[in-house]
Amino acid sequence: MGLLQSLLTLPLAPMRGVTWVAQRVLDKAEEEYYDPAPVWRELSELEDRLVRGEIDEETFEHREDELLDRLEEITAHRMQTP
User: Which sign does the torsion angle of CA 50, 62, 31, 16 carry?
Assistant: First the structure.
């Protein structure tokens, strides 16, 4: 039965390979998207720019709120993912 099944599903083998590769790419993309390190790094750089006077307080607060929201999204995702 295994040999017969293999022969009958042989035309689908390239599709299974493409599906496998697509899943690996998706897994890697999600891993990078939900990595908090770049967000923390950007928060630090944002604070440095404020201290150096490159941006004003309003710009800082707006971008900081966006980054903190992003961190909340990452935390929520990590709590849902087993």
Answer: negative
The answer to whether 53 touches 67, Cβ cutoff 8 Å, is no
| Cα separation, 8 vs 40, whole angstroms | 52
Integer Cα distance of 24 and 17 in angstroms? 11
pTM of the model: 0.71
d(CA 17, CA 64) in angstroms, rounded, equals 42
Query: Smallest Cα–Cα separation from 70: which of 49, 28, 41?
Result: 41
Residues 26-54: tens digit of each pLDDT? 999 999 999 999 999 999 999 999 999 99
